Amino acid sequence: MHTNRTEYIISITSRDRVGLIYDVSSAISYMNGDLADMRQQVLHGYLTMIMYVSFPVNVETEEINRRLIAAGTDDAAIEVSIKVLKQSQIDSSDSIDNCYVLTAEGEDRIGFVATVTKFCKDNDINILDLSTTVSGNRYIMILFVDLSNCSSMDELRSRLDRFADDTDLNMVLQHYDIFKATNEIKIF
Amino acid sequence: MIRSDHILNTVDMIQKENLDVRAVTMGIDLLDCRSRDVGHTCDRIREKICRYAESLVKTCDSISKQYGIPVVNKRIAVTPMASVGAGYSRDAFVLLAEALDKAAETVGIDFLGGFSANVENGMSRASRELILAIPEALSRTDKVCGSVNVGSSKYGINMDALAMLGQTIKELAEISADTGGFAAAKLVVFTNQPEANPFMAGAIHGVGQHEVVINVGVSGPGVVARALERRLDQGDAPGLQDLAEEIKQTAFRVTRCGELIGRRVAEELNVPFGIVDVSLAPTPKVGDSVGEILKILGVDDIGAPGSTAIVAMLNDAVKKGGTFASQSAGGLSGAFIPVCEDAELASAVENNSLVLEKLEAMTAVCSVGLDMVAIPGSVDAATISAIMADEMAIGMINNKTTAARIIPVPGKEEGDFVSFGGLFGESAILPVRNVGKSSRFIGFGGKIPAPINSLKN
Questions:
Q1: Which residue ranges make up each domain of chain A?
Q2: Alpha carbon distances (Å) from B165 to A73, B97, B189, B443
Q3: How close does chain A come to B1, measured CA to CA in Å?
Q4: DSSP assignment of B341-399, as one string?
Q5: Phi, psi dihedrals of residue B392, rounded to the nearest 5°
Q6: Which long-range contacts (CB under 8 A, 24 or more apart) does A110-116 make?
Q7: What pairing do the DSSP bridges indicate for beta strands B447-448 and B156-158?
Q8: Which residue in chain B has the smallest CA separation from A130?
Q9: When you count CB atoms within 10 A of the terminal residue's CB, does the N or C end of chain B come out lower?
Q10: Do domains A5-89 and A99-183 have the same CATH topology?
Q11: DSSP for A150-169?
Q12: Which CATH superfamily is domain A5-89 in?
């Protein structure tokens, strides 16, 4: 990113509608904002978007907030959260070198996600991406996880097996490369 | 990021559908081990195998754990021993086999292939001594496998060698009568034997290969069977071309997993990566059967009319998917139909729906041949040679590999049952008709001349 600019992580939530992303991104470009990276998801008709943006230093946080809210409409108001980034807080590596995919499947129940994510926390597994699907009364979690902090794969696999037994979940941990190899044309 | 339905499909393939890497096979050149003294040669063979393959098993296990895909067999293929032991006597060849066995034991692999000779156009003295040594060599060792290439589309079929090998197979079975003639399961007779092939018992590290190399054999009949079932469940009345497409796509995914694991093992061992043998290799486990695929594809019993056409389509679709997936597909690549090793094929023999003649027809379009076929122990050597000659002729004329791994089970007849255990499986004895009626043919000896399609220059 450029010097003389301030970097932000901005997230917005709104009811989804046609033209929403255009309205948000044109508000950003109107303020001379550089949209370096973004992710968005729509869930049950609601959209959430997280953006990594820089603005010239003379653009105030207040103005960004005001203009983004103004991009909302009466029946699809936009909620905005803005965080100013200091250089030391930027982690540019969205690396997936040591990325694994953990899937957890079991009967739908209260606390499913908390149970699985507790295992991750207890075993130093960092979750990079998480999605869930429900099929009948089965609940399936798909987690992209980073195992850089885990020292022994052997130990982790046996703990995972024990955990799956104890919680009556079907859990599978596979290297991300397997999914690339089986689903993408070019890998070698 | 990959879509979640693709992720779940892949997870199912690995977890529920028996996807594994069937064999990681290290090929090792042993030509530089030979010396005037057989004892010294044995020492050098053991030393060289142990040096190159010291970490093979450990590395396969660790990569297998890392990726969560089982590597079922760790194997070694060596230079055909007829070349390494040229000049030695029959007894010395037995010592070489023992040295190979000891080395295999030391490095902890499952099987070692390469007690082999190529006699496609004539038999050298070394090859003759090796073939004479086969019964003792393969019955006194646990892990050593042998193969003899008796024919090719280039040179025809060496019928003298086939006559001799009929006897060899009888002797192998009789020496190992207490295990149902199992020693015969460690010998394969080939036409057009591939020189880089990770599958046993026919794995060799041919002349013209790397000093050392990693080859991989994939598997996955279970994965293909489940994929076909899912496709049929869609209820849109698929045609055979749609089912062939499903097989192709599944073979692609299976092959990719094999290549990934193989390349990682090769990288870790700092050894070149050779080929992926893109094969549907069944195991006796329920749900891991090529026979089951044939039934899904529309015959109620294996051996019913249509079976050959189905094997042809399956074999072709597997090759197409696998070839695109791999940078270097090779070996046998296709569908295997080894009777004892496939629960559905074995049961088709038991209920008489699959007979030898139909099996032979199916091998004309599969990737190997008459594989793991248990026949009555009373069948004479000349008839066995003639069964093999038929199989070899199919390979010679069609420019394809064909193989025969026939076990004349001592003391067992039609209706009896034999079990070899583990991956070798079990089967009813396959009846042989017209026994003893081919002696004059085998008695001629000599060779079947090179076919016209050998003249391609």
A1: 5-89, 99-183
A2: 86, 18, 8, 13
A3: 9
A4: T-HHHHHHHHTTSS-HHHHHHHHTTSSSEEEEEEEETTS-HHHHHHHHHHHHHHHHHHT
A5: -65, -35
A6: A112/A139, A112/A141, A113/A141, A115/A167, A115/A169, A116/A141, A116/A143, A116/A169, A116/A171
A7: antiparallel
A8: B4
A9: C
A10: yes
A11: ---HHHHHHHHHHHHHHHT-
A12: ACT domain (3.30.70.260)
pLDDT over 70 percentage in chain B: 100
**Predicted local distance difference test score (pLDDT) of residue A30:** 95
Cα(B42)–Cα(B85) distance, rounded to whole angstroms?
10
CB-based burial, B6-30: b 16+ in 10 Å, e otherwise: ebbbbbbbbeebbbbbbbbbbbbbb
User: By three-state DSSP, how is residue A171 classified?
Assistant: strand
Q: What is the pLDDT of residues B288-310, one digit of tens each?
A: 899 999 999 999 999 999 999 99
Q: What is the ipTM of this complex?
A: 0.79
pLDDT digits (tens, 9 = 90+) for B76-99: 999 999 999 999 999 999 999 999
- Using the beta-carbon criterion (under 8 Å), do B257 and A174 form an inter-chain contact? no
Note whether B68 contacts A180, CB cutoff 8 Å.
no
For residue A184, pLDDT over 90 is answered with no
**Please, what CATH class does the domain formed by A99-183 belong to?**
alpha beta
CA distance A132 to chain B (A): 9
Q: For residue B313, which of B243, B401, B394, B218 has the smallest C-alpha distance?
A: B243
